[in-house]
Amino acid sequence: MSQSEPQNENAPSQMIDERIRELGDWRGKMLSQLRAWIKQADPEVVEEWKWRGVPVWSHDGMICTGETYKSVVKLTFAKGASLDDPSGLFNSSLDGNTRRAIDVHEGEAIDEEALKALIQAAVALNTFRARGGTKSRG
User: Fold this and answer.
1) Domains in the chain: boundaries
2) Residue 84, Cβ neighbours under 10 Å: how many?
3) What is the tens place of the pLDDT at every residue in 49-73?
4) What phi and psi, each to the nearest 5 degrees, are found at residue 74?
5) What is the DSSP letter of 121?
């Protein structure tokens, strides 16, 4: 399939479902929970499957990725450095100029409302930029 051909709309979602099943441990449960909150925060979110196995959520551009490692589930926000994070969820990739990430370790709780607010802020930023706007912090 070429890059310009449309994908089966369900294929990425099905691949994410399969990844969650394959993990079969706390990481799968956490990824599933984070995914549910992303969808609740933005019912129009588009699920994608990129880079040989990374779940991606987009709306007028990439919102975040959901990577799983041996000891962490990582949500990386593509434009996280441009987002306000009053609850301090970002705890990884803090030195870069663009991305910010949330690393979740086994047994850690995530503030659902704060995460949903970050998702909504990322969507608002993407939508603003897609319409030709620019955003500076401050």
Assistant:
1) 10-129
2) 9
3) 998 889 999 999 999 999 999 999 9
4) -120, 125
5) H
Topology (CATH level 3) of domain 10-129? Aspartate Aminotransferase, domain 1 (3.90.1150)
User: What three-state secondary structure class fits 9?
Assistant: coil
Cα angle value 41/101/75 (rounded, 5°): 50
Q: Which H or E run contains 65?
A: strand 62-68
| Cα distance between residue 87 and residue 55, in whole Å | 24
pTM of the predicted model, to two decimals? 0.86
Given a contact cutoff of 8 angstroms between Cβ atoms, the answer to whether 16 and 9 are in contact is: no
**Residue ranges of the alpha helices (H) in the chain?**
10-23, 26-41, 112-130
